Amino acid sequence: MTPLALTLGDPAGIGPEIIFKAWNQLRAAGPAFVVVGDFQALASASGSGTHLVRRVTTPKQGAEVFGEALPVIDIPLRSPVVAGQPSSAAAPAIIRWIETGVGLALSGAVSGLVTAPIAKAPLYAAGFQFPGHTEFLGELTASANYQGARGPIMMLAVEGLRTTLVTVHEPLSKVGALLSVDKIVNAGVVTAQALRSDFGIDAPRIAVAGFNPHAGEVGSIGREDVEIIVPAVAALRELGVDANGPTPADSLFHESARAKFDAVVCMYHDQALIPVKMLDFWGGVNLTLGLPIIRTSPDHGTAFDIAGRGLARPDSLIAAIRMAHEIAARRI
């Protein structure tokens, strides 16, 4: 199997550190990956200069040297960065790293894409037009051939729980107005499709979370559940998706409830992320479903407050690398 591509993310964050730590843990047994980013930032993070970091020009070369050194397709920053001090000056390089990683995945040169965390504010200051990684990846892959329901749909996964989102980075005050039958149906279909193709679940079971407390109490605590979610679940079932709901979110995530489904379609960000992070704060993986490429990332941010101090844990990044590799193996 070809290696994975791993984009550096914001070089002022913990990305360089956790990438080197992940390589150090995976170098003997893999999965192999090649970093798309700034060579010098990774050499500095290694603590050993350039000795354990090596420039390569292709993913194939990266796989060949992976056991000896961290392979980097070097796309340099225009100016050095300081750990913990994000700057919009790095934005063009960060964007180019992502674009290059996507291109490698679309071409088949790598088996999938893993992305280290980015920070939105420095990118916005440089004119970035997308809410985040997920939406940017959707745009970059929009014209590629793909058989199946389209994303991007965000999934968060840990052992024992997978959640997907209908809305992502939206203020709570706007979420109700943004929900629609079509959006929920698309999220449910993409989720079921991914459970089959990427997780090997032949007959996936989907729980659909309610939006209001008690799933609206038949309309007495808000109308969204009755008017939007109920018909969306009915439409999913007509399409052959084993979907049930709306189920009150406060009774969806305990152990016995989780045994009854393979994923939960959630209406908004915290509804999906809080239970995942409660179950395994360090090992969560963010997947983007419904794309023509495999994409995973760690389920945390740039952590500028601890960048450069040697404190960052690579657990989530390692889990993301392993999950991308496992999904790629299933798709062969």
Summarize the structure in short.
The chain contains 12 helices and 12 strands. By secondary structure, it is an alpha/beta fold.
Overview of the structural elements:
It is a single chain. The protein contains 12 helices and 12 strands. It is of the alpha/beta class. It has a 12-stranded mixed sheet with strand order 3-4-2-1-5-12-11-6-7-10-8-9, with helices on both faces. Helix 1 (15-26) crosses helix 2 (39-46) and helix 8 (181-199) packs across helix 9. The protein is globular, with a radius of gyration of 20 Å. It starts with a strand and ends with a helix.
Which sequence of strands runs across the widest sheet? Answer: 3-4-2-1-5-12-11-6-7-10-8-9
Q: What's the architecture of the largest domain, going by CATH? A: 3-Layer(aba) Sandwich
Beta fraction = 15-25%
Whole-number tally of structural domains: 2
**CATH-level-4 superfamily name of the largest domain:** Isopropylmalate Dehydrogenase
Indicate the CATH class of the largest domain: Alpha Beta
The major pleated sheet works out as: 12 strands, mixed
| Rounded mean pLDDT score | 94
Distance between the termini: 9 Å
- As a whole number of angstroms, the C-alpha radius of gyration is 20 Å
Give the class from helix and strand content and strand pairing. Answer: alpha/beta
Number of strands: 12
Helix coverage percent: 25-40%
Low-confidence stretches: none
CATH topology of the largest domain: Isopropylmalate Dehydrogenase
**H-E string:** EHEHEHEHEHHEEHHEHEHEHEEH
